[in-house]
Amino acid sequence: MLRLVSASLIIAAIASPRDAFACPGCSGEVRSRLTLRLQFTQAKAVVHGQLKNPRFDPKTDQGFTDLQIDTILKDDPARRGQGIITLRSYLPVVGNTPTDYLVFCGVVDGKLDATYGLSSSAAIVEYLKAAAKLDDTDPVAKLGFFFKHLDSPDATIAADAFVEFARASDVEVIKAAKQLDPARIRKLITNPATPIERLGVFAFLLGVSGGLTDGPFLAGMLKETPLSERSSAAFGGLLAGYILLNPKDGWQFAAATLGDTKQSYGVRLSTISTVRFFQSTRGNECKADVLRCCAALLPHGDFADQAIEDLRRWGYWDLTTDVLAQFAKPTHAAPIVRRCIVRYALCCPDEQAKGFVTAIRQTDPKLVQTVADMLDLFAPASPTPKKNP
After folding, report:
1. Interior CA angle at 272 toward 269 and 277, to 5°?
2. Residue 103: beta bridge partners?
3. Got the DSSP string for 287-346?
4. Would the N or C end of the chain have less CB density within 10 A of its end CB?
5. Closest CA to 342 of 292, 328, 262, 293
6. pLDDT at 2
7. Hey, CA dihedral for 265, 268, 271, 277, is it positive or negative?
């Protein structure tokens, strides 16, 4: 596969990790969302009430809506006892449109300033009241609470509870494992109404909390022929859950998937992300399996650079002979792959890597110098020595 890579992407590969080590199956976009609990923490005041009197200012064409406050969840002196605040937005109240609204406010020039709001039932208000009392230092209680709301009939609550899990660390989820009901998770996974973006996280939760029958359950989804859209989208999380429940078969399946050119690009990339997740969170515990997965990628020119760069960043030099052997292959002639191999060799402490660099300097000195310059450019800065007084 021919891939065009800009200089900025090449630099990024050297300067920083190419992946974020989060729960596999949940995107960075999901993890970056602010939950209602976090919105509550950041807000100066949080109020709930009824929308009234939506209107436009004909002079400025700006919209306004009054909120008649019924419940004060968090107060600030800037409210000044007001029972009505004006939102700088036109929120139509027509017919059966729900008028219940939850508003988070900051303070600007000594006055409340609404920063975020949403239509809100009484159930959401009670949920937020309870969530706001949770302590981040107690992940068992925190995630145990949100687990009970993952299948809430209120879509807003269910979505918010999911994001709390997506934002949670691997360690937090493991600590809360006993709070998770595998039967409830399986129901969420098999429910066609469950949004696709949640499946990978739910599969990971099943991997943490499940039993003997749950490994085959996840394996069945991974091995569908053809792979369904839902299983394909959640492949990384499904695989992580499978590995947690059945490490031997799970890792064997991961390596086979990476080495199978018939698998889609997306599936293999999801598998790489899962391998990176385990290397990041479990290190030496799974090093042999990670190396086997990297070895499965090396013969394939369209993915070899991913494995080689990971090996370099992790300081895993066990596959040096195999890495260097790819350089002369026509399938690995793409500039990004050749640079990646040279970068690996320049960093590797093994004598065979040093000999490889010496040989390439004679045949292609420009290539070696370019890669060396990039490494120098993004090398960690040395601390400035302190001068004697």
Report:
1. 130
2. 47, 117
3. HHHHHHHHHHHTT-TTTHHHHHHHHHHHT--TTHHHHHHTTT-GGG-SHHHHHHHHHHHH
4. C
5. 328
6. 31
7. negative
Quick one: which H or E segment has residue 183?
A: helix 182-190
CB 215 within 8 Å of CB 246? yes
d(CA 25, CA 201) in angstroms, rounded, equals 6
Q: Please tell me which residue, 61 or 176, carries the higher pLDDT value.
A: 176
CA-based angle 181:279:343, to the nearest 5?
Answer: 155
3 state SS of 365: helix
Residue keyed to tokens 């499940």: 210
End-to-end distance of the chain based on CA atoms, in angstroms? 60
Per the CB < 8 A criterion, the answer to whether 161 and 185 are in contact is no
The pLDDT of residue 17 is 36
Least confident window among 95-109, 186-200, 278-292, 314-328: 95-109
Top-confidence residue, 247 or 13: 247
Of 152, 133, 141, 125, nearest to 71 by C-alpha is: 125
Give 195's DSSP letter. -
Q: To the nearest whole number, what is the mean pLDDT of the chain?
A: 90
- Residue closest to 296 by CA, chosen among 268, 324, 317, 270: 268
Which is it for the CA torsion 362, 365, 369, 370, positive or negative?
negative
Contact 313, 343 (CB under 8 A): no
> Whose structure tokens read 């402490």?
349
Return the H-helix or E-strand segment holding 116.
Answer: strand 111-119
> Using one digit for the tens of pLDDT, what is the confidence trace for 79-89?
999 999 999 99
Could you identify the residue written with the tokens 């700006």?
62
Judged against a pLDDT cut of 70, whether residue 16 lies above it is answered with: no
Q: Which of 244, 250, 238 is nearest to 189 (CA)?
A: 238
**Residue 193 and residue 217: Cα distance in Å, rounded?**
19
